Amino acid sequence: MAVTTLPAQRTLDVPAVLKECGLAAFVAFALAAPMVGLETLPLTGGLGINTRFGAVAYAAVLVFFGRLGFALLRAGYPVPVLIASLVFAAVLISLLLTGADQILPFKSLILNWFIALLAVVITVRAAWALHRPTAEMAARERENVMDRVGIAVLRGARWLGPLAIAVAIALPFLPFADRRFLDLAILVMTYVMLGWGLNIVVGLAGLLDLGYVAFYAVGAYSFALLALHFDLGFWVSLPLAGLMAAGAGVLLGFPVLRLRGDYLAIVTLGFGEMIRIILVNWYSFTNGPDGLSGIPRPSFFGFPFTRRPAEGTMSFHQLFDVDFASIQRIIFLYYVILVLALVTNMFTLRLRKLPLGRAWEALREDEVACRSLGINPTNTKLTAFGIGAMFAGIAGSFFATRQGFISPESFTFIESAIILSIVVLGGMGSQIGVVVAAILLIGMPEWFRELGQFRMLAFGAGMVLIMIWRPRGLLAHRDPTIRLNRDGDFEAPG
Amino acid sequence: MSADATTVTAGDAALLRVEHLTIRFGGLIAVDDLSFAAQDREITALIGPNGAGKTTVFNCLTGFYKPSVGRFVLNLADGPRYLERMEGFDIARAGVARTFQNIRLFTGMSVLENLLAAQHNKLMRASFFALAGLLNLRSYRRAEAEAVELARYWLDRIGLSDRADINAGNLPYGDQRRLEIARAMCIEPVLLCLDEPAAGLNVRESAELNALLAYIRDEHRIALLLIEHDMSVVMEISDHVVVLDYGKQISAGSPAEVRKDPAVIRAYLGEEEDAELPPIIEKDLGEGS
Fold first, then answer.
1. Does A16 score more than 80 pLDDT?
2. Cα–Cα dist A353/A341, whole Å
3. What CA–CA distance (Å, rounded) separates A305 from A300?
4. pLDDT confidence of A137, banded at 50, 70, 90?
5. CA–centroid distance for A270 within its chain
6. Which residue of A has its CA nearest to B180?
7. What percent of chain A is helix, strand and coil (3-state, nearest 5)?
8. In the predicted model, is pLDDT for residue B289 greater than 70?
9. Taking Cα atoms as reference points, which of A51, A50, A52, A33 lies closest to residue A42?
10. What is the pLDDT of residue A5?
11. How much is the ipTM here?
12. Cα separation, B98 vs B217, whole angstroms
């Protein structure tokens, strides 16, 4: 195997293939034995252990044959792979459809469907190899395919964007949109907004900010304290909280934006933690770890969502003369966050085409060159930091009013990490990428709740897969913000 | 020292006067009491062997280092500016543009965007710090159209108009060099500083570069300050040459004078007195005349 095998030649080095498959199966076994094989059970008076070695063996066997399938495909034997994977997929899917899947070693429905999906993928690849014997898709070629998808999505943004907005507007009235679904949609939308806000800082200006949640916290606490102490309404507190978060961003940015790259990341990480620790310890101001409760709910421009409004006021359902239903408030919240997120998006899209946005991107590319062109790096970075922080603050106020209760627990480092993951996985600077990544990263773990304690494992596996297949993010493709030649042709990748 | 004094007095009306510039890094004296002037509508070349301190002078002039002693006087219509007291980006705003020895384009942005980023300050004022731009007011749209026109003018000059929308990083090396010059010109400078613009160019590209630099001098009537190793470029287009060795000025004058100066020949070819020029160098130096 020293010489690269030509695809047309049939060379099957049996010991090497068996060694490769055995190794893959061994790794799977070593990983699965402790994580899947042993389960702790709460017993009366202690912990018990439940062993599931059948499932471990099943996993190792699956990995062995899966790897064998890929090895045979590579060596130019698509037919046996096609037949075997087709039979396996057919059996598995029929078992799942007839509800007889309880005889399988894995009891989880999602997991079994996932295995069936993998079998289908191998089948398709085998069929593809049969169809075009030389078409073992090189990694580079696959990258190009995904690049073209990225370009197509960007090109399609003209109709894809309005379509997505239309779907988002219609969402609460779709038949399957129950309370739980809408709560999830609000959560996803909050992260979309945070992702769009952070995209200004990380994606456009190229400043790695690991403490973005600090501004989210500043916004949430500003909103809560303004509402509780000064009795300001939702629509007054919201912009004020945004401004205060922007002020915090500028205040932090002033000393630290001289730093670059890793150093900036560490300082912002520290700042994120500092804010949280201040919130915990400044008891007289923030109520410490007990948090702030009784934050007023948003009203429909002065008409509250209550069954019985206070004397002399009118509530939402009376205003529109409909029956009271608690879902009305949820739907309203959903629309509020939708509008806030869309404003963030439009603001960013517009700024990208303005000199300020171009200076951000130029700064990301080369700070020394920017300086030599008369761009003040510190001020330009400060605006990016401040505007990014402002949107985080507004999202934070929304969070506060939706929950009605905030405590420092909600603003831990993991939140910063998730928001940053959304931006990076979506493809830095890509607005649609943020939406896709937010749905995947926030929505998927909710759908995977069935996996119980393995939920976050699936999350991690998904991130690893995306990083293998799309190291630059799902939809990473940048189009010029302005064109000289109006032919609209996209340059060939590469 | 008398040579220095005459240079300074002769350059009183010059656009840029470098006066008694000394740059020390710890114990190392990189530039030692250097004085020269760059005249309007002239190409001044700064030459010297490797490590003579040429790029250090440039970095100091454009604000990346501060001089230990000495000053830079930029004579503008509304009074002199003392560059050594200013931040790098303020020096650029005063009208000193530069290019870099290793090209520094915004490689991930399109060619046109590179040229618009150079007009940042003008457009920021026109867009009222992005406010007018956000509202898409007509005043901003007109300013942007003008900026695109200036970019188009320079793209036509360097022959990149049809490739204006591709990423700058995807251009061939020679085009990147010329794009960097065009980008520097887009800040509408009074002084353009070029750090080895001919490095890595082939003969044809080098000739195109000469034509471009001469065009900038003659049509845009600005001063050019040039660091160069390529003698054919220096001798052909320079109006005034300053020769540095070990941070000291060893000669100055027209290309023809400098070429004959024994001190220069010594610096380039070694210490041996009365050394004959090897034919290849003779040819190189002679190409300009």
1. yes
2. 19
3. 7
4. low
5. 23
6. A369
7. 70, 5, 25
8. no
9. A50
10. 44
11. 0.85
12. 15
Domains in chain B, CATH or no CATH each: 2-95+189-286 (3.40.50.300), 107-188 (no CATH)
Nearest CB neighbour to A484, from listed B107, B165, B184: B165
B88 with A484: Cβ contact below 8 A? no
User: Rounded to 5 degrees, what are φ and ψ at B130?
Assistant: 80, -10
The residue among B54, B10, B68, B43 whose CA lies nearest residue B250 is B54
User: Under an 8 A CB cutoff, do B162 and A350 touch?
Assistant: no
Closest residue in chain A to residue B186, using alpha carbons only: A373
Facing residues of B191 across strands? B96, B223
CA dist., res. A439 & res. A436, Å (int): 5
Q: How far is A353 from chain B (nearest CA, A)?
A: 9
What pairs with residue B76 in β-bridges? B79
Domains along chain A with CATH numbers: 14-136 (no CATH), 169-307+337-469 (1.10.3470)
Give the mean pLDDT of chain A. Answer: 83
The residue in chain A having the minimum alpha-carbon distance to the alpha carbon of residue B152 is A484
Q: How far is CA A238 from CA A204, A233, B91, B245, in A?
A: 25, 8, 41, 64
Tell me the per-residue pLDDT of B109-143, one tens digit each, with 9 for 90 and over.
999 999 999 999 888 888 777 777 777 788 888 88
What average pLDDT score do residues B143-169 get? Answer: 91
Residue in the structure block whose two tokens are 């080098």 = B206
Q: Are B167 and A490 in contact (CB under 8 A)?
A: no
Exposed, middle or buried by CB within 10 Å (0-12, 13-18, 19+), for B278? Answer: exposed
The two three-digit tokens of residue B255, written as one number: 């290309």
Q: Which of B253, B280, B262 is nearest to B36 (CA)?
A: B253
Q: In chain A, which residues touch B (CB < 8 A)?
A: 347, 350-351, 353-356, 358-359, 361-362, 364-366, 368-377, 478, 480-485, 491
Q: Regarding beta strands B191-195 and B96-98, do their DSSP bridges make them parallel or antiparallel, or are they unpaired?
A: parallel
